[in-house]
Design a protein that fits this description.
This is 4Fe-4S ferredoxin iron-sulfur binding domain-containing protein. Pfam families: Fer4_10. GO terms for molecular function: 4 iron, 4 sulfur cluster binding; FMN binding; metal ion binding; oxidoreductase activity. It comes from Methanofollis liminatans DSM 4140. The chain is an alpha/beta fold. The protein has seven helices and twelve strands. The chain has helices at about 15-30, 70-75, 100-110, 140-160, 200-205, 230, 245-255; strands spanning about 5-10, 35, 50, 55-60, 80, 85-90, 110-120, 190, 210, 215-220, 240, 265. The strands form four sheets. A six-stranded mixed beta sheet has the order 2-1-4-6-7-12, with helices on both faces. The radius of gyration is 19 Å and the shape is globular. About 45% of the residues are buried. The chain binds flavin mononucleotide (FMN). Flavin mononucleotide (FMN) binds next to helix 1 and strand 6.
Amino acid sequence: MKTESVKLVYFSPTGTTKAVVQGIARGIQHENVELLDITRPDARVQPLETSENELLVVGVPVYMGRVPALVTEWLHAIAARNTPAVCVVVYGNRVYDDALIELEDILTGCGCRPIAGAAYIGEHSFSTDETPTAKDRPDAGDLHHAESFGRKIREKLDAIASADQIPDGAIPGCRPYRGDSKLWTVDFIAVGDACVRCGTCAEVCPVGAIDPEDSTAIDTKKCITCCACIKRCPKHARTMKPGLVRDASLRLHTLYSERKEPEYFL
Ligand SMILES: Cc1cc2nc3c(=O)[nH]c(=O)nc-3n(C[C@H](O)[C@H](O)[C@H](O)COP(=O)(O)O)c2cc1C
């Protein structure tokens, strides 16, 4: 089937999900690719409308084995009409549990026809230089895999005349979903003297939890512990205080150091 465009939709506070879906898009090789980055709160105001003539690629990170609760409302509101869709989850080398089938269910529920799914590995949000987990992933091998997955999606689309011919259910998973969509409410970010109040942290925060005028003022009720502000601080002024998140970082580093590989389902 012919598609007029590919829409790449992603939520990606620390950039690994974005890198993966862009890799997939390179493999799909469509001349008309539109990016819809829903990481920032202002990008999740307008609902998305799509038609049968488009291919939707939706990528989210795995949070506690689930699709991040923060984006489910926006995803549920997508207005699709038989739109072929690719479901992509990116996880930090621990587990993705049922996040992929959850994403498939959400997209099916709003009128999409899932054509493929994949789980990739990205550097864990809680990874630090001292306790790295899946450091620098997706790496060249992962991105090569993503491009090859993209080519396979294209071949699958080329082999059918319309979205009605997409066969059901290649994506594995259980219902009710494992994992827990409830995140921690925790005061875990230390701001050091190197901070120059440039405001980058507030800009990259996906939930508006940081005061743009005072980067030490963090609303812990809004914070989703994504660590974008830590990882993207140009002065490396933000670190983890001792406690829940730093302990988790050490635990992940200790227990999940064995490299996992991407998987796709077509
Ligand atoms: C609150 C939270 C929960 C997470 N839960 C999981 C998980 O259950 N399994 C896992 O392997 N990685 C987990 N991660 C790690 C992210 O899925 C991973 O780092 C991903 O690559 C981040 O995507 P991004 O770079 O697009 O933000 C979690 C990260 C955060 C912030």
